[in-house]
Amino acid sequence: MRAIILAILLTGTTVMAQAQAQPQPQTEAPKAKYDFSLPREERIKLAESAAPPEISGKATVYDLEKTGYVKVRDGSNGFTCFVDRQAPVNLEPTCFDAEGSATTFLTRIFVEEQRAKGKSEDEITAALAAGYKSGKFHAPGKPGIVYMMSDQGFLLIPSVNKIVQIPPHLMFYAPYATDKDIGAPPASANMPRIIRPGQPDAYIIVIPGSHGGH
Asked: Nearest Cα to 49, choosing from 17, 184, 41?
C-alpha cells in the first residue's frame, strides 16, 4: 500500500490509481532500465542530470559498472553524483551533499558490490541492517539535501510489478522518521512525504511545483 501511495505521489497519474484498485497479475518482471553498454560519457551525463550544472559540474562523479561504482572524477563542492538503484531495475540519478556522501552513499557502494558478487536482494538488505547495527554504516548526522532533479528517473512499484517515471524532486535527510513526524499530511503530490519510513536512510521528499530537469 505504501508503495502504491508513493507511486501516486510521484507520477500523479490515474493509471497508478487504477492499479491500486485493480492490480493486474504480471507474468514477466520489468526490464532493467540502466544500460551498462552506454558509453561512459553518457553514463556520466546521466549521473550529472540529478542536479543543476552549477552543482553537478563541481561534484565528484561515480560511474556504475557491472562490478560496482567507479570514481571517474574528483569534485570540489562536497557533492557526489551517481546513478542510484534502490532496486536492480531502478534508474535514479542522484546527487548527495557532503553529509550524504560521507554516510548514505557508502551503503550504495556496498549494495552494488554485493550485487556484482551475486548476492540476493534479501541477503543485501540483511547485510545493510547488520552494518548499521554494528556501526559499519551511519545515518546522516545533520540536515542536508539530495538532488534528484533529473527527468530520466524510473522506479519499480513492486505491488503492481510496474516501472513508473518519477518527476524531478528534492529529498532531505530524516533518519528513522515516519509520516507522523511531518504531521501525516494527506497523500497529495504537492505535500511532503517520508520515503523509507523508520529506516536510517529515510528522507522527506518534496516535489517542486515547477519541474526543471535538464
From this structure: 41
45 Cβ neighbours under 8 A, 6+ residues apart: none
Q: How far apart are CA 185 and CA 146, in angstroms?
A: 21
The model's pLDDT over 94-138, given as tens digits with 9 standing for 90+, comes to 999 999 999 999 999 999 999 999 999 999 999 999 999 999 999
Is the pTM here over 0.70, yes or no? yes
**DSSP code for 180:** G
pLDDT in tens, 35-93: 999 999 999 999 999 999 999 999 999 999 999 999 999 999 999 999 999 999 999 99
Residue with cell 548476492: 119
Query: Do the Cβ atoms of 174 and 181 come closer than 8 Å?
Result: yes
In single-letter form, the type of residue at position 94 comes to T
C-alpha cell at 96: 548527495
Question: Largest Cα–Cα distance of the chain, in whole Å?
Answer: 49
Q: Where are the beta strands (DSSP E) in 123-198?
A: 145-148, 153-157, 162-166, 169-173, 193-195
Q: Which residues pair with 140 in a beta bridge?
A: none
Domain boundaries, the chain: 2-206
Report the amino acid identity of residue 207.
I
If you write DSSP's letter for every residue of 7-41 in order, what string do you get?
Answer: HHHHH--HHHHHHHHSPPP-SSPPPP---TTS-HH
In angstroms, what is the C-alpha Rg of the chain?
Answer: 17
What is the length of the chain? 214
Distance CA 133, CA 88 (A): 24
